[in-house]
Amino acid sequence: MEKSALVLGAGGFIGGHIANKLKKEGFWVRGVDVKHNEHQGLLVDDFVIGDLRDPRVVEKVIDRDFDELYQLAADMGGAGYIFTGENDANVMHNSALINMNVAHEATLRKVKKLFYSSSACMYPERNQLDPDNPNLAEDSAYPAEPDSEYGWEKLFSERLFLAFQRNYGLNVRIARFHNIFGPFGTWRGGKEKAPAAMCRKVAEAPDGGEIEIWGDGNQTRSFLYIDECLEGVRRLMDSDFIGPVNIGSDEMVSINQLAKYAMESSGKNLSFKHIAGPQGVRGRNSDNRLIKEKLNWAPNQPLKVGIAKTYKWIEDQLKSNV
Question: Which residues are catalytic?
Answer without folding.
Answer: 150
